């Protein structure tokens, strides 16, 4: 049993009404997977969520590209296979897990990842509290509410690197991986 780093971009925050339009998975060995499921309906989409996630700029469907590499069933099968038995690691991975579960179910598949999800923000807060590291290096108790960018900055991670592009599934999955390995060590070579 290992870990898979995950992030999704969606058409909104409601897990029953909104759909996933971008999925990033990074296996422990570093293999990256990026999928763009075709949305069934944009009618209930949250325009703010689409703008924040960059749907209009990045989604093949938004650009009118109809010859997708994989259909949604094939994407769902790959997601199930990659995540089966693994721990999902991400920033608030419960958000992604709930949406991925709904996505898989809609194609008659099941979520088979380990039920213990690993939230890198909670992991980082515990690590920094235990080591007396605070915002910008000063001591703090890291009481909620937390700000993701403050956590990242306090860990010495440059959030502005292109590989960590904010609100892209792959950028956020890569960032989760970086936080995880900074806290846990044992980074694969």
Q: What kind of oligomer do you see? A: single chain
The number of helices is: 7
Major sheet description: 5 strands, mixed
Q: State the end-to-end distance.
A: 18 Å
Radius of gyration computed on alpha carbons: 17 Å
Under the CATH scheme, the architecture of the largest domain is 2-Layer Sandwich
Q: Tell me the name of the CATH class of the largest domain.
A: Alpha Beta
- What's the pLDDT, averaged over the residues? 89
CATH topology of the largest domain: Nucleotidyltransferase, domain 5
Overall tally of domains: 2
**Order of neighbouring strands in the sheet with most strands:** 3-2-1-4-5
- The SSE string, one letter per element, is EEEHHHEHEHHH
Record field, number of beta strands: 5
**Overall geometric form:** globular
Strand content: 5-15%
CATH superfamily of the largest domain: Ribonuclease H-like superfamily/Ribonuclease H
Q: Helices and strands: which structural class?
A: alpha/beta
């Amino acid at each position: 049993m290992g870990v898979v780093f995950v992030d999704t971009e969606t058409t909104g925050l409601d897990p029953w009404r909104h759909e996933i339009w971008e999925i990033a998975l990074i296996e422990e060995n570093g293999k990256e997977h990026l999928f763009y499921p075709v949305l069934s309906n944009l009618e209930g989409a949250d325009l703010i969520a689409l703008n924040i996630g960059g749907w209009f700029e990045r989604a093949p469907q938004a650009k009118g590209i109809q010859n997708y590499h994989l259909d949604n069933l094939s994407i769902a099968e790959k997601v199930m296979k990659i995540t089966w038995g693994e721990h999902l690691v991400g920033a608030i991975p419960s958000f992604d897990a709930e949406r991925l579960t709904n996505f898989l179910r809609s194609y008659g598949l099941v979520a088979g990842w380990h039920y213990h999800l690993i939230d890198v923000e909670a992991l980082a807060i515990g690590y920094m509290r235990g080591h007396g590291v605070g915002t910008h290096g000063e001591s703090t108790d890291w009481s909620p509410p937390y700000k993701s960018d403050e956590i990242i900055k306090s860990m010495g991670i440059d959030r502005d690197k292109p590989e960590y592009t904010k609100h892209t599934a792959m950028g956020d999955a890569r960032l989760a991986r970086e936080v995880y390995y900074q806290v846990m060590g044992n980074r694969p070579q």
